[in-house]
Amino acid sequence: MSLHSYIRAMPKVELHVHLEGSVRPTTLLALSHRNKAPLPARTVAELEQWYKFRDFRHFLGIYFAVSRCIRAPEDLELITREFLSGQARQNILHSEVTLTPYTHYVNYGIEFGDQLQAINEARRWAEEELGVTMSLTIDYSREQEVGPSLMVADWAIGGLGNGVSAFGLGGPEVGNPPEKFRAAFERANSAGLPCVPHAGETVGPESVWGALRTLHAARIGHGVRCMEDAELVSELRARQTPLEVCPTSNVCLKIFDSLHTHPLPAMLDEGLFVTINSDDPPMFGTTLTDEYIATADVCTLDVEVVDRLVLNALQASFLTEEKKTRLRNDCVGTFSTLRKRHL
Ligand code: ADE
Ligand code: ZN
After folding, report:
1. Does the beta carbon of 20 lie inside 6 Å of ligand 1?
2. Which ligand is nearest the CA of 248, by number?
3. Could you list the residue range(s) of the whole structural domain that residue 234 is in?
4. Strand-pair category, 12-18 with 92-99
């Protein structure tokens, strides 16, 4: 018995995982064929080869080709069902999942309402049949024009209470600072929709400062490059802003050379509010469970820290306080039972 088996069995919560980046490889090949959206890969092995990224730009090109395979609301329902089945198999009881709806609107004219309805079908099915919950972060990709970001903010606001819990910002950080999207984020924040931009991944501290000060981020996607600025670290510690750290993603996209040089242990030592996430799991050859196992091994985390990372994700989620309390009590009870069995 071991910490590995404990991690596999423990209840978990995930805050940073992209729906389009989570399509099962076999399903992606089938969608590519069915929807006549060719990929430079015909087998799972070839997909794995294709998923070797030179840098962030290279990754984004591949990410858009993958997104192009999603052509209809039924495709979104299918990939959400499969995604949530995978989360349930890992004992991930709640997931906050990023969707980039403007891509599907531009590519194939799929209305946001139809996208949301399809995903909500899968969400309700998973809640009833699998006992796992999810909500959506509606994100906007930074390489798009500013204009439509206001429309997408309105889509997200309209979905609040109907499966949407946050508004996000993804895509290429370089050359697209948070300030560019101030208006859309102001609109979301004013409507009571929390904002969770990616920042401090491919750009350094100035991007995280912008996310905090201009976008009023409730959590930061990645945020790992905050460690380059001691004043920013103090600010994030004082605010206890949750950081959605995705260790393997950072290595695959060349933010850090290896898990051994990843700043996660230093972030914990600094008293930052850290959560662990998978980002685009099949594209990075990982799962949330693998992320916990790898970081526990490489960073020699003990079980108390592993438990805390899960409880951090739960606390930083956008579940209601009532649901958080219930889930926290369940998790803490299960942790103590599992410790006796696995450790
Ligand atoms: N979209 C999917 N994965 C992403 C990442 N790691 N950073 C920014 N945008 C993304
Ligand atoms: Zn991401």
Report:
1. no
2. 1
3. 3-342
4. parallel
Domain count, the chain: 1
Q: Which domain CATH number covers 291?
A: 3.20.20.140
**Residue pLDDT tens, the chain, 343 long:** 599 999 999 999 999 999 999 999 999 999 999 999 999 999 999 999 999 999 999 999 999 999 999 999 999 999 999 999 999 999 999 999 999 999 999 999 999 999 999 999 999 999 999 999 999 999 999 999 999 999 999 999 999 999 999 999 999 999 999 999 999 999 999 999 999 999 999 999 999 999 999 999 999 999 999 999 999 999 999 999 999 999 999 999 999 999 999 999 999 999 999 999 999 999 999 999 999 999 999 999 999 999 999 999 999 999 999 999 999 999 999 999 999 999 9
Burial class (CB in 10 A: 0-12, 13-18, 19+), 294: middle
Between the CA of 159 and the centroid of ligand 1 the distance, in Å, is 22
- Least distant ligand from the CA of 254: 1
Distance CA 155, CA 86 (A): 28
Q: Is 118 helix (H, G, I), strand (E, B) or coil?
A: helix
The rounded Å distance from CA 171 to ligand 1 centre is 5
Cβ of residue 187 lying under 6 Å from some atom of ligand 1: no
Question: What residue type is assigned to position 171 of the chain?
Answer: G
Q: Considering the entire predicted model, what is its pTM?
A: 0.98
Beta-carbon contacts of residue 273 (< 8 Å; ≥ 6 apart): 236, 240, 241, 242, 243, 312, 316
The one catalytic residue among 77, 96, 201, 244:
201
Is residue 228 among the annotated active site residues?
A: no
CA–CA gap between residue 122 and residue 150 (Å, rounded): 27
